[in-house]
Structures are given as structure tokens and as C-alpha cells.
Design goal:
- By secondary structure, this protein is of the alpha/beta class.
- The chain is built from four helices and five strands.
- Strands 2-1-3-4-5 form a five-stranded parallel sheet.
- α3 links the parallel β3 and β4.
- The longest helix has 13 residues, at 14-26.
- The radius of gyration is 13 Å and the shape is globular.
């Protein structure tokens, strides 16, 4: 029996969280949600570590985006992170430790699904 792939999705926008949860659950993934950095860290500490984190680094946070990504990688070095953001702040997320892919919000959801499948295959 195959186990379900567990994805943690962290995004400040409730509508984005709901949409992505519905789309990814339809693909057979188990999806948990976080709306801000403390909730994200709490879920990572208390639940089973997800197979993948989809993160909009623009979460309500007490740290910068780069600090949040660095903290996540230092605490969970084996956790693959997909940055799903507007990507318009001149950051090179793809070069940050732990980040396995970056997608612009608003792109076809099929690109995100394809990237997830590729990451899970590895």
C-alpha cells in the first residue's frame, strides 16, 4: 500500500491556500495549511515532517524572507521547499539552501503540479 504524499502549504492568502489545497488534494496529496511563520514552525515541530513544503516567503513573520528560508533549512535540511510567490522582489530564491524550485503565482497550476511530481520522484 502506497502512503499518501504529505505537503505543507504556507501562504498568507486564505484564497490561495484553499485553491491549492483543493487542487493538490484532487491529485491525491494530503495537504496541511499554515497562514503565518509561527503556525508553519509549529506544524513542522508537532506533526510528521512533510514530504514537501510549498512556501510563499511573504508570510506574516518576525524575520525577513531570507532569514525564514535559512531557519527552515537549518532546522529541516532534508525538507524540499518550493517557493510559490510573486517573485518580484529581486530575490534569487532558487539559489537558497533547501529550495528545489520556484514558481510565480498566477502561472498555470499545471506547472506547480509537474514540479511537485518531479520533486517527489527524487
Amino acid at each position: 500500500m502506497d502512503r499518501k504524499i504529505n505537503i505543507l502549504l504556507a501562504d498568507r492568502n486564505r484564497h490561495v491556500r484553499t485553491f491549492l489545497q483543493r487542487e493538490l488534494a484532487g491529485e491525491g496529496y494530503q495537504v496541511r495549511l499554515a497562514a503565518e511563520d509561527r503556525e508553519l514552525l509549529h506544524l513542522l515541530q508537532t506533526d510528521r515532517l512533510p514530504d514537501l513544503l510549498i512556501l510563499d516567503p511573504d508570510l506574516p513573520s518576525y524575520s525577513t524572507k531570507a532569514e525564514l528560508l535559512a531557519l527552515l533549512h537549518s532546522l529541516y535540511p532534508d525538507l524540499p521547499i518550493v517557493v510559490y510567490s510573486l517573485l518580484n522582489d529581486d530575490r534569487k530564491y532558487g539559489e537558497m539552501s533547501g529550495v528545489v524550485g520556484c514558481l510565480e503565482k498566477g502561472e498555470d497550476i499545471g506547472f506547480l503540479k509537474k514540479l511537485i511530481a518531479e520533486v517527489i520522484q527524487k
